[in-house]
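User: I'm putting together a small comparison set for a docking exercise, and I want a reference complex before I start. The sequence is below, and the ligand is PPS. Could you produce the 3D structure with the ligand included, as structure tokens?
Assistant: Of course. I'll restate your input first, then give the structure tokens for the complex.
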Amino acid sequence: MQTKAVYVCSCVSVCVLPLADCPLVEMRLCRLVRQQYSPDHLRAATTTLLHVRRITHNLHMTHIPVKQREMSQKKIFLVVVAISTVSLLLHHGGHLSWTMEAFYLGCPALRAHPAQSLKPKHTNVAFLKTHKTASSTMQNLLFRFAERNNLTVALPVQACGHQFCYPHSFTSHFVHPHTLPPNIITNHMRFNRAELQRLMPNNTIYITILREPGSMFESLFSYYNQNCQSFRRVPNGSLEAFLDEPWHYYRPSEKDSMYARNTLAFDLGGDKDRPATDVQYARAFLAEVEQAFSLVMIAEYFDESLVLLRHLLSWDLDDILYVKLNMRSQSSKRSLTPGLPAKIRAWNSLDARLYDHFNASLWRQLAALGPACVAREVRLLRRAQERLMRSCFEGRMPLLRSAAQIKNKDLRPWQPSAKVDIVGYDLPVNLSRGFLSHAQELCLKLIMPEVQYTRVLLRSQSLRYRRGYQLRAPQQAHNLQQPIRTVLPRHPQVQRSQPPPAGPGPASKTPTTTKPAAETQGRTIKLEPKSSQTQAS
Ligand SMILES: Nc1ncnc2c1ncn2[C@@H]1O[C@H](COP(=O)(O)OS(=O)(=O)O)[C@@H](OP(=O)(O)O)[C@H]1O
């Protein structure tokens, strides 16, 4: 409230000057006053104040005699500095540090777009969730963004489990009809660009994530050790033995073989078994991926990738806060002996090419944004993240716990086998859902594993769908035969001035669209029985 008062003051003090631009400036500042305070608003205010300074400077240069000019300039400058300082001091904690940083922003991208923070957030996102690449952390972030902004997340039909019938190539028939038309899609799938384009809005931004092949394959080998036949055959579960003679254990057309070779390429819709010598195929495939995805994140540089994502989607810092999910315990990991990374790369040559290519392109994009700017944003992100975690865990950083130690079953991560330990978090108090404060609900969702969150989201979206269905006019029923991507108005982009949803839980907004394609409703998808790890990976 005090900060708002300062903005009012700044509004007034600026507008006592008889400037032609005053109404415009005043409007911008007053809009900030009306908006709920956030670091981005303060950043915008800073930009505005500097902008005001520039305007007044120019006007004084043209209208005021030279002798008085210097004095006036000094006064105006002092007013601007005073206002900025007071608003900084009025604000405390993390917002202060964010603001301090904002004052010496050297980020070319921010300078090039002074009004960037006022741009609407982009809300139509397709995230290809690749395997063992930090994709669950990313999915959780997207789920929370969708809930906060009352967006629709496309979720799998029950017959598909919590994935879009992976490893089958994605089709819109795998999407639950209560989750249409979607803004966001993120559950595991095998990428099929044409089908996704049919489902998603035209302005959807496609994103995916890759991980360095050595650590990724070690993670896959351990996670799927009991479920993937290629790995089960190996004596003593030895990664070294597998990599000495991969063809001895691997069967290309066997079920779940996609976990044993070029998993990234397979998830992206490519041919995992193309020989490494087929350079032409590899090049064409890379070009295809490059064309389809606006951002390919890299797990090793997760925070840097998030900075790029934030800029790409015009999101706030608060939108990219996360807690690491789906991690193995230290005892479930093994370090790679010398020589193994090279063998892994040779066996997964297509994945290695993908990684090298997109790792290089990530660093080019980071360089274009400015290393200092990126480092600053990463620092701010980590600080904000720590604050958030401490606020959820009674002032402490959360302890990683094995599933057996987690009392709240909504927070227990899925375990692929007894041989690997996937760790998670528990909230300090065992909160029963339905009686949570808004803050507690946010904390719960922040650490909720993928399987449970998918279920929760499907429930709340189905509820919203049914409520909306009851309210829809009966004559709209003829639209049932429309194609999956309807041409009716979609969810608008989120405006920054839009207040946050009233509370957690099922979104209250009723869809403005007609009932989605009938052919998917009640459809029985005939699939071969899936192994447990395919269901829960
Ligand atoms: N933020 C961040 N940065 C870097 N790495 C991270 C992050 N979050 C999760 N992880 C690691 O990602 C691995 C799990 O990946 P996924 O969630 O994609 O796995 S899954 O396919 O959905 O089962 C898993 O790796 P391993 O522990 O090596 O198995 C996690 O530790």
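The CA atoms of residues 212 and 356 lie 8 Å apart. The beta strands are 125-128, 153-154, 184-185, 205-210, 295-298, 327-328, 422-423.
User: Thanks, that's exactly what I needed.
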